[in-house]
Amino acid sequence: MFTRFGATRPLTRPLARSYTAFARPLPVSVRLARGIATSPPWGVNVTQPLGVNPSSPLGDGGPEDIPHHGINVDKPVRMDTAPAPEPGKDFDIVMIGAGNIMFGSDQGPWNHSFRLEHKLGPRLKVKALIDPNVARAKEILAKKCASFVEQAYKDTIVYKSLDEYAAALKAEGGAEPKAIIIGAPPAFRGGVSKGRNLEIDLIKFFPKVAYFIEKPVSAGPVAETWEVAEDLVKNNNIVSVGYMLRYLRCVQKMKQIIHENNLVVMATNARYSAAYESIDKLAWWDKSKDMGPVIEQGTHFCDLSRYFGGDVNMDSVVAHSVEWYEEPGKLSKIPVDESVIPKEDRIPRITGAVWKYDNGAVGSFTHTVALQGTAYACELEVWADGYHMRLVDPYNAPVLLIRRPGDDHEERYAFTDDDPFFSEISNFIDAIEDGPNPHILSSYVDATKTYELTWKIRTASEAARVTK
Ligand SMILES: NC(=O)c1ccc[n+]([C@@H]2O[C@H](COP(=O)([O-])OP(=O)(O)OC[C@H]3O[C@@H](n4cnc5c(N)ncnc54)[C@H](O)[C@@H]3O)[C@@H](O)[C@H]2O)c1
Fold first, then answer.
1. How confident is the model at residue 108 (pLDDT cuts 50, 70, 90)?
2. Rounded CA gap, 182 and 98, in Å?
3. Same domain for 210 and 164
4. Residue 309 Cα to ligand 1 middle (Å)
5. Whose Cα sits closest to atom 4 in ligand 1?
6. What pLDDT, on a 0 to 100 scale, did the predictor assign at position 77?
7. Better-predicted residue by pLDDT, 55 or 437
8. pLDDT per residue as tens digits for the range 446-456
9. Are 224 and 192 in contact (CB under 8 A)?
10. Distance between CA 214 and CA 447 in Å, rounded?
11. What is the CATH number of the domain that holds 372?
12. What domain range includes position 352?
């Protein structure tokens, strides 16, 4: 079962496919036309307030721009009932990172290769797997080649770096891939200096290829990530970021209700409770490595909050923490030896933040390192006039509870076999192939806003600390 989402977090069963909207970076010309800033430094106030970003009405409006993007929850296509992929032209893919997000682990349901295999079937051809840990990459490929998906991986070449792959492709005059899936750690991405500038190198070598990039978009300075975002906007290729919870049918149902009832979100309240006893990755407990639990893990819920509340007024963010050295911060079942981590790099046990959205609504977020066992407890609440929507347990068994005007009882929605990982990959491929009604729900610019919010929460809570 799942243990951590320290990488992110878990679902207990396969999910399904749904439809969504284009949130890909807007062309510079469009941004200018809409009065959206195109050059850094980009703060949160540079985009026009978007209100609640409601979903499209029933019938799924197709690739409409915000605020009318959204999945049609009433026309789901589950992975297990999706039509079998048909033979056709090869779909060449390059994977960067041979780790858990790409090939799965026992820590959760993430596994992009699995979803790509189911989406593309015999057409999938993984041309290159790039990872400095060549042994790990080769081991993974050997397993794939010993299975029924051998055809997709039998000609995959392992490269240590993107430079090496690009040079080899140029030397042999080979064709570019159709998509590059990026699952390298965030420390190597979203920056502008050598070694952290993966996207800038990608634009240099493969400007027309579509990129799927994992969250968080970086681990480095936010200002640099905005520079990368601007470069990607200018480059104008298809980019999707892995905030897969946006694709959950419960989440899209909430969007639909907001849209159909013309609601204005008044407040969001997100709570993310990790089961710390099961998090045995030392880096997760070390702020200098994984950047702390809000940036690495809570990011999914900060992102979902923004998905409903819109842009955040960053200057309004206030936050407090319970630190490891405070009486309420003492934990009895930490599974790593925390004493080897420098004191200043140890993570907070509780982080609580409040902010204003640009439309005036209030957002709040609590991340806790308090639960033991293995199951996480996560909830998102959204309020609007007469409405209270409660998304419960989105990782394991998503349920949506809604109180509406005219009835004090809660309605309950539970969509079975909902796989947001498949939905995001499926829509990404459809967007590349002009497939039926594709939607990309998380653009790089939008994901950078989430990244900025999580840093703001971390720095605000650190500034407010009562030091030992
Ligand atoms: N959306 C989700 O639910 C979810 C789940 C898990 C992980 N993730 C994200 O995926 C990313 C990777 O996490 P993971 O759990 O797969 O980590 P991991 O440590 O299992 O794997 C990362 C791999 O990247 C390789 N690598 C390191 N530097 C590289 C570089 N410069 N170029 C190419 N490869 C490089 C490493 O050798 C390793 O094999 C993180 O950003 C994480 O937050 C997201």
1. confident
2. 10
3. yes
4. 29
5. 8
6. 53
7. 437
8. 999 999 999 99
9. yes
10. 10
11. 3.30.360.10
12. 250-419+445-463
